[in-house]
Design a protein that fits this description.
two-stranded antiparallel sheet; six-stranded antiparallel sheet; 274 residues; 8 strands
Length: 274
Amino acid sequence: MSELRHINQKTEKAGNSADDKKSRGLSSLANAIALLKTFSEKDVELGISELSKRLGLAKSTVHRMATTLVIGGLLEKNTANDKYRLGLTLFSLGGLVRRRLDVPSVARPILQELKSELNETVLLGVLDGPEVVYLFHFESTHAIRMQSDIGVRKEALCTGEGQVILAFKSDVEIDEALSGTIKQRTNYTITDPAELRKKLLRIRAQGYCVEDQESEVGMRCIAAPIFNMNGEVVAGMGLAGPIHRMDEDTILRYVPHVQDTARAVSQRLGYRPF
């Protein structure tokens, strides 16, 4: 019986030892995460003393963690001042997360806010060859409003969303888009390639597009580009409404709202303008 009790005591101690080791491991991991989160845009580089102070840990503990994180590429040491900064491995991991974020899911709640604020129809479109495809829209509650359906396709060159995407494409891609036949959807559709090129350059310079009945008679649209983390234009968002509500003064007032919304979506996708 005493031998069995001795075995049980040894087993219990071994179990406690394993639990203690697991607990210490989790604690160390939590501390390492807290250390990485200490860095910010304001505090790009931090020394061991400052990290120790902020984390409430001994300098020796922080130094061991920092050394391990440097080996793993999560931290880098600036040998000029012995301070640490976030490593490039974190940048690579962040890129994987950003690539997982797709435009519609990121844009949806942000575009919904714009529709709620201005109560005009908000649309999101992407380029597919010479056409723009609408991924989703939030319709205005006004009786007279811009209407659209998910999956609808229109010639890119006659829509605000298509024009604003093309304006930020390469010159080669713009040349290709203007080389084909430009279909006339309305009497206001611009079909002259030279005139369209001028408009695309103007859109690129000002950062937004105003489409005046080129796609639908009686409707105007303000559109802005959406960029991904690589600075590539990936979509166009538009705010559209009837001309009697979208007069010149209203358009000028709404342009900053549209640009801010597109910028918010782009930033959420990882875009950082230089």
